[in-house]
Specification:
Shape: elongated
Oligomer: single chain
Largest sheet: 5 strands, parallel
Radius of gyration: 20 Å
Number of helices: 1
């Protein structure tokens, strides 16, 4: 479907109202459109492609449950809550440099998603943004992202490695919980806080380096990580945490 530029004298600048179009397979938006409404294409299970011609705002649940959608639009600057959650045909996501906000649950349960690239313009990866993406194993986070939100990558059972940039200051609660393939991680020297249960259930996690900059570590941060040895500085917050919680450690 190609959406027209106008209806009579009125230019089309907002897209919505396709909930009943069950056989809709592709959409091209008009050049003046700047917003895709909440739930605009929600559960349109036949939809495979969406093409946009200018920077747009993709609002909450716009493409939620579009189980045949193979790619996301390539021209937008905001992703709302649940915008692409349950899009089980998505395999790769490259978020454009123009994007400054990724909503909560934005790509939750995109179970075929293998790789994602997040630009420096995004300051925070919101809560549960990629939780339950069980095939995800290639994540690129650009320098400029400062916070990883609660549950952001929880349940990403194929994620075996991730490089955190030197701009990260906070890792939220349950951020990497139950990432059972993750084996090692070096945290950046900018990091100050590790949230409650952030790495709980990471059963293969064997090595983590925690910098002296970390001043707060939440309870159960490394719960059910039986193989873990922490690499830490003497007298640091992490050193005391390891002692208090009987976690094996080596001083660096």
């Amino acid at each position: 479907m190609i959406i027209p530029e106008d209806i009579g004298p009125v230019a089309i600048v907002e897209i919505g109202g396709f909930e009943g179009c069950k056989t809709l397979r592709s959409v091209s938006t008009p050049p003046l459109a700047h917003e895709i409404f909440c739930s605009a294409f929600r559960n349109r299970t036949a939809l495979t492609h969406v093409r946009t011609s200018r920077r747009m705002r993709i609002l909450d649940r716009a493409f939620e449950g579009c189980t045949s959608l193979e790619s996301i639009p390539d021209c937008f600057h905001l992703i709302g809550d649940n915008a692409f959650s349950g899009c089980t045909a998505l395999t790769r996501v490259v978020i454009p440099d123009a994007v400054d906000s990724i909503g909560g649950y934005a790509f939750e349960n995109c179970t075929a998603l293998v790789s994602v690239s997040i630009p420096a313009t995004v300051e925070e990866i919101s809560f549960s943004a990629f939780s339950g993406c069980t095939a995800l194993h290639d994540v690129t986070i650009s320098d400029g992202v400062t916070a990883i939100g609660d549950h952001a990558f929880s349940g990403c059972v194929a994620l075996d490695h991730i490089a955190l940039p030197g701009s990260i200051t906070q890792i939220g609660e349950f951020s990497f919980a139950d990432c059972t393939a993750l084996t090692s991680l070096a945290l950046p020297a900018t990091l100050t806080e590790i949230g409650f249960a952030a790495f709980s259930g990471c059963s293969a996690l064997a090595s983590m380096t925690i910098p002296e900059s970390v001043t707060a570590i939440g309870d159960y941060a490394f719960d059910n990580c039986p193989a873990l040895t922490l690499h830490i500085h003497e007298g640091s917050c992490a050193h005391q945490y390891a002692i208090d919680h009987a976690i094996p450690f080596e001083l660096i």
